[in-house]
Amino acid sequence: MQNPSNKPHPTPQKTRLPKTHSKKGKPHQFAFRNADNKKRGRNMKLVIVGGIRPDIINLSCLFQELQNKKIDFVFVWTGQHYSKNLSEIFFTELNVAPPKYMLNMPEGLGQGGQSGFVIKEIEEILLKEKPDAVISFSDANPCLAAITATKLGIKVIHLESGLRSNDFRMPEEKNRRIVDSISDLLFCPTRQAESNLWLENVHPKKIVVCGKLIIDVLKKHEQDIREAEKRIFGNDELGMLEKQDYIFTTLHRSENVQSKQNLQNILTGIGIISKKYDKPVLAYLHPRTITAINQYRIKKPENFGVYDPTGFFDFVALEKNAFMYIGDSGTCSEETTYFNIPSLITRPTTERPETVTDGTSVLVGKQDGTFNPETFANKTREALNKIPKKGLYKAGTANTITRTLKEKEEWIRDDKVMWDD
Ligand code: UDP
Fold first, then answer.
1. What's the chain's average pLDDT?
2. Within a domain: residue 11?
3. Any idea which residues carry the catalytic annotation?
4. pLDDT of the residue at 237
5. The CATH number of the domain where 89 resides is what?
6. 368 part of a folded domain
7. Residues 254 and 159 placed together within one structural domain of the fold
8. Short-list 351, 365, 96, 358, CA closest to 221
9. Is 60 within a domain?
10. 102 plus 243 within the same structural domain
11. How confident is the model at residue 1, as a pLDDT?
């Protein structure tokens, strides 16, 4: 599918970083500047770090609100997602200015390499920018910039805090717990996330329940999504595609796509459902999933169309009109609950439990993280019968976050602890 936007992609600015390594024998400098700030009455300054597709999508609304409230921030892109379809397209579509710093994370790094890259590379930027706080988003490796920040004495603010799947096979679950444990201010999307933090003895004064940024993004772009729907369903762009007449799939989690057995069983399960309900599958797969399918010689079901990742508006237009969603994306399970689209989540647990208890999702993974294609397919009826709770998700999250940042500005610029009042 074509990039629906005609706007040119932004060219990120490659900023030369100063040499910050200390001379032999001298300790590294700290980035503290709070005392100075107060004296000079300077506004607070934030560094926001992202590096993968959902980061830029979710943060797009926050950037707008920060600008509206005249909060000074610098955006750093770690470059974990670097291809046009996984990053640039979202900057263009969602009208996000190019990041001030664009790190070139080398391709093919493992978990350790990616984590190490973020932790190391962000240090020079923080020493140069001297922010009052670093904002980390969610649970992918870019959020580990929080580790560098806290070691430099810079406050850490975590967005999408408190999510817990309790599935320790997930690298994301480890990141969530690490970052939450060192954060000074934790913005939770739900009350459930807040109680998870209470159970881990996070001081209640550090926690703010604010809702989900993705709902702001979906609301803000309703018209763009409607236009994408008209393009896709109005003029045969995908060859006579009818609303509610296809199964919509994404797959990218390492537990699923780096296991030959899991990947094969998931595709077989999808194939059973596709055959039973006579619906073709549109699978918008992450590049590493496509590589794994080829490498492991996975047998694809009939009527299983593989597509490269696409832009947000086209993607959501397709998701919103699907017969059902099957896949392992956390954000997609929220979006399908919001749009009332039945979903089979190819995982044993979820860090977004409200999508199961009050939404449209059914978990189809076995407790040990494997899949039985027949049992998985038998859960389809349960998903089709689900009705999401009204008013589960509300917009206004970016406003709540920025309002809170303004309210706590003095504390953010100061080095007192929050409950020290
Ligand atoms: N998405 C997109 N194009 C695609 C696949 C996903 O715009 O081809 C969007 C989707 O609407 C959602 C987000 O990307 O907002 C989900 O990203 P992903 O599944 O990679 O991450 P997760 O939410 O699992 O962390």
1. 90
2. no
3. 252
4. 57
5. 3.40.50.2000
6. yes
7. no
8. 96
9. yes
10. no
11. 37
Instruction: Ligand 1: list residues with CB < 6 Å.
Output: 53-54, 57, 250, 252, 284, 309-310, 312, 315-316, 329-332, 335
First to last CA, the chain: 56
Q: Give the closest residue (by CA) to ligand 1 atom 1.
A: 312
pLDDT per position as a tens digit, 210-240: 999 999 999 999 999 999 999 898 766 556 7
* Ligand 1 atom nearest residue 172's Cα: 25
pTM for the whole thing?
A: 0.90
Give me the numbers of helices (H) and strands (E) for the chain, helices first please. Answer: 19, 13
Distances (CA, A) of 229 to 236, 248, 348: 11, 15, 32
Residue ID of nearest Cα to ligand 1 atom 3: 310
In this prediction, residues 54-77 reach a mean pLDDT of: 97
Say how many domains are in the chain.
2
Q: Is a pLDDT exceeding 90 seen at residue 264?
A: yes
Residue 310 CA: nearest ligand 1 atom is 8
For 143, the domain range is 29-211+396-413
Q: Report pLDDT for 40.
A: 53
Burial 74-92 (b: 16+ CB within 10 A, else e): bbbbbbbbbeebbbbbbbb
Local structure of 66: helix, strand or coil:
helix
Q: Is the pLDDT of residue 15 over 90?
A: no
